[in-house]
Design goal:
This protein is α+β, with helices and mostly antiparallel strands and about 325 residues long. The chain folds into three domains: about 60 residues, Winged helix-like DNA-binding domain superfamily/Winged helix DNA-binding domain (Arc Repressor Mutant, subunit A); about 210 residues, Bira Bifunctional Protein, Domain 2 (BirA Bifunctional Protein, domain 2, 2-Layer Sandwich), CATH 3.30.930; about 45 residues, SH3 type barrels. The chain is built from nine helices and 14 strands. The longest helix is centred in the C-terminal third of the chain and has 18 residues. It is globular and about 75 Å long. Bound molecules: biotin (BTN).
Length: about 325
């Protein structure tokens, strides 16, 4: 997309009221004819731009396309702007980013895809990633820390993802501990965080955190029905995937800047988002499964539970999975 088209799109996005051609030509330092041409080009790309001679232009719809131009237009100025890679199709955004990380890519490199051919979930599961309906998004972070100082990171990524969804869709999802985002008892987003260590120092070399959000699906395959849903199915409104991908860049960047200095505040926010707290759950550790009550969140994002015999336990992510008494939630 030409720079001017992108700039015009940025000025029109998020505006309830029309923006005049004169305003835009002044803001961008180009002629009104050039603005008009950019608007015509946006229409040719599938954007719905309403025009009234007196008032100006209003963006009424955007094509449901997840591409670099759309994401950058939605992102605007941002320190990570030059590090955002948007692909039409890839095996897995996490895999792709791990290769970039090994080649020395900087913190804040983000890989986004419209489709994954081998999307990965936790515990070796696959993550369905069809084109045209989801956001498959991974970020590279390089915190200077030992792995044990990053126990809270997965929780924080979940909470930051909730803020991104809230800013674009107007509803804040809950979090099923540790970091599945849920709306109306259905999973709408999964997160897979992977860590690479320096062998000698045992310091973290890099973290790749991958977020997969079901946005505009209208149905799910039989085997996922009952558990998975999309934002569109839960809110009744289609999602602007470019805006959501850009919001994730903003929220995860903010989280990365403050994950140590504001750790307690982040975990309070996470505890507020976490719908598992206060519930009776089943703790699944390998072949062993036992009932417990989820009381709260510990200082590193652990799930604090009490077993029927009164023993208390702090559960770390990775080690166990949590199920509701009657199914997924
Ligand atoms: C889960 O629910 O088990 C985690 C799903 C994580 C999916 C995302 S999509 C972007 C990134 N790339 C992957 O291959 N997986 C993650």
């Amino acid at each position: 997309m030409s720079m001017l088209k992108e700039e015009v799109l940025r000025l029109l996005r998020g505006q309830e009221k029309p923006v005049s051609g004169e305003q835009m030509s002044a803001a961008l330092g180009v002629s009104r004819a050039a603005v008009w041409k950019a608007v015509a080009a946006l229409r040719a790309d599938g954007y719905g731009v309403e025009a009234s001679t007196r008032l100006g232009y209003r963006l009424v719809s955007a094509p449901d396309r997840l591409d670099g131009a759309g994401v950058l237009a939605a992102l605007g100025e941002h320190p990570w702007r030059g590090r955002v890679v948007v692909l039409e199709s890839v095996d897995s955004t996490n895999n792709y980013l791990k290769k970039l990380a090994a080649e020395g890519a900087p913190e804040g490199t983000v890989v986004i895809a419209d489709r994954q051919t081998a999307g990965r979930g936790r515990r070796g599961r696959t993550f369905e990633s069809p084109s045209g309906v989801g956001v498959y998004w991974s970020v590279l972070l390089r915190p200077r820390a030992k792995p044990e100082q990053l126990l809270h990171l997965t929780a924080l990524v979940g909470t930051a993802a909730c803020s991104a969804v809230e800013s674009v869709c107007g509803v804040r999802p809950g979090i099923k501990w540790t970091n599945d985002l849920v709306l109306g008892r259905h999973k709408i987003c999964g997160i897979l965080t992977e860590l690479s260590l320096e062998a000698e120092s045992r310091e973290v070399d890099y973290v790749v955190s991958g977020i997969g959000i079901n946005c505009n699906q209208t149905a799910f395959p039989e085997e996922l029905r009952g558990m998975a849903a999309s934002l569109r199915m839960e809110t009744g409104r289609p999602v602007d995937r470019c805006a959501l991908a850009a919001a994730l860049v903003r929220e995860i960047c903010r989280m990365n800047e403050t994950m140590f200095s504001q750790k307690e505040a982040w975990l309070r926010r996470f505890a507020g988002d976490c719908v598992t707290v206060g519930q009776d759950v089943r703790v699944v550790r390998g072949d062993v499964c036992y009932p417990a009550h989820a009381d709260g969140i510990g200082p590193d994002g652990e799930l604090l539970v009490t077993r029927p015999d009164g023993t208390r336990e702090a559960i770390n992510s990775g080690e166990v999975s949590i199920r509701g008494m009657y199914g997924y939630l």
